[in-house]
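Example record

One chain of 160 residues, shown exactly as stored in the release files.
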Amino acid sequence: MTSRLAATIGVLASLGTGLSTATNAGAADIVDTASATSTFKTFLAAAKTAGLTDTLKSGGPYTVFVPANSAFDKLPVDTREALMHDKAKLAQIIAYHVIPGKVLVSDVKPGKVKTMEGDPVVLKSDNGKITLNDEANITQSDIQADNGVIHEIDTVIMPK
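Predicted C-alpha cells for this chain:
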C-alpha cells in the first residue's frame, strides 16, 4: 500500500468511517470485543447457549446492550439457572438486548426502538444518563466492534 493511500485511510478511520489499515485478520466483532473483558462472560455464555453467537459475529451492524455479569447475578438463582437451560427463552431475551444499526450514546433519541426480538425497548436520556425500560442503566458506552457497538448495562431486561 502506498504511503499516500495509507495516510488517507488513516485520516478516514479517524473520522469514524469504519475504514482501517488493518486487514480482516484480527478483526474484532461483537463477540470478540465482548470476550476481551471478563465483565461479559455470562452474556456470552447465554448467547452461545441460545445459538446467537454466529449472528453476533457475522451480522450487523448491531447495537448490543450487554448486561454485565453483575446484572445476571441480580436475577434469582433459580430464574438464572432455568434460563440457561431454556434455549428458546434465552434466545428471546438475548435478542431483546440487540437493536439493528449502530447507535452511539450521543445518537440516542428517547423513545421506543424495535429490538431483534421484535418487541420495542424504551430508551430515555436524562442529562447524559441513558436508561432502558426505566430499569437498566448504561454503565459503559460506545465499546466499538467491527460490526457494531456494545453498551454495558446494569440489569437484564426482559421482553413483555
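Notes: The chain has seven helices and seven strands.
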